[in-house]
Amino acid sequence: MRVSIDVQMHYEFSAPNTVALVLEVARTNGQFITYENMDLGQATVTRIAGDCGVGSRIWAQVPGREMRLHYQATVDITRPNPPLEGMWAMPLHMLSAEATPFIRPSRYCQSDKFVPFVNKQFGHLMGGQKVAAIRDWIESKLSYVPGSSDSDTNVLDTFAAREGVCRDYVHLFCAMVRAAQIPARATSVYGPDVTPQDFHAVAEVWLDGAWQLVDPTGMCGADGLVVVAVGRDAYDIAFMESQAPASLLWQGVSVVRC
Predict the structure, then answer these.
(1) Which among 8, 146, 192, 193 counts the fewest CB atoms within 10 Å?
(2) What is residue 151's predicted lDDT score, i.e. its pLDDT?
(3) Residue 124, Cα to own-chain centre: how many angstroms?
(4) 3-state DSSP helix/strand/coil percent for the chain, to nearest 5?
(5) Phi, psi of 36 (to 5 degrees)
(6) Could you give the CA distance from residue 90 to residue 172 in angstroms, rounded to a whole number?
(7) Rounded CA separation 213/220 (Å)
(8) Is 92-236 CATH 3.10.620.30?
(9) 152, pLDDT greater than 90
(10) Domain range summary for the chain, segments of one domain joined by +
(11) Whole-angstrom Cα distance, residue 145 to residue 129?
(12) How far apart are CA 7 and CA 29, in angstroms?
């Protein structure tokens, strides 16, 4: 599948500012960039590698009080969308150094709080069957409600409220999967089936000795996602972090099949 990505952002700052941006498509397995362009006007750009070597992060030094950004990319998605149910989970002592950190609790994913619930609800299942059952439970029990959460909402809030947006679905999914002692991490993506169109968050789980993409909202399959960055939770994959107070003037994300 080929998709076209178009991101436009216009922000105003209280002073000249340094902004961290995580927007560019990652050069990683399962996707190939055929065209890409980032326009940040007069900003001075410095790129560093993303977490786990996936994608990149931009430090943009904005000389004035406004930032106008236009990012475009065309990407061929080549990964399949295999069923999780037939996949196996490694025992802890066989986990790689890459996967091991993602069985631990993090700022927004207090997985230690979910061990009793996960054992009771999903303890009879193994490996990919357990992960698929957790995904299906979250998709069926939560309501997708834009504006229902903010940056202070944690996974316990989401579990109690039974509503949220993509980041909340991912936090609950990662917390439950980690509680089952299976590595899970948050992943920022673009997807043509995301409704409403916006930056999107999904998860990756370590099954069959590799990372497998899972969208707990049910909007997208692995074969319709373009990976941008990965991390422990939404804190690590935020599309923008501003050193100075920032006011949104306009923002648009468009992802369409070519």
Answers:
(1) 146
(2) 84
(3) 28
(4) 25, 35, 40
(5) -160, 140
(6) 21
(7) 10
(8) yes
(9) no
(10) 2-78+239-257, 92-236
(11) 28
(12) 23
Both tokens of 29, joined, read: 């397995």
DSSP assigned state of 221: -
CB 177 within 8 A of CB 205: yes
Taking the C-alpha atoms of residue 113 and residue 146, their distance in angstroms, rounded to an integer, is: 26
The DSSP bridge partners found for residue 212 are 205
Tell me, what's the pLDDT at 207? 98
Q: Please identify which residue in the block is written with the tokens 């509680």.
A: 179
Token digits for 253?
């994300």
Cis peptide before 105 (omega within 30 of 0): no
What one-character DSSP code corresponds to residue 114?
Answer: G
- 105 beta partners: none
Q: Record the tokens describing residue 57, joined without a space.
A: 């992060």
Q: What are residue 188's phi and psi, to 5 degrees?
A: -90, 140
Helix, coil or strand: residue 210: strand
Spatial separation of the C-alpha atoms in residues 148 and 104, rounded to whole Å: 27
How far apart CA 4 and CA 23 sit, in angstroms, is 14
CATH of domain 2-78+239-257: 2.60.40.2250
Tens digits of residue pLDDT in 7-28: 999 999 999 999 999 999 999 9
**End-to-end alpha carbon distance in the chain:** 8
Residue 241: phi and psi, rounded to 5, are -130, 130
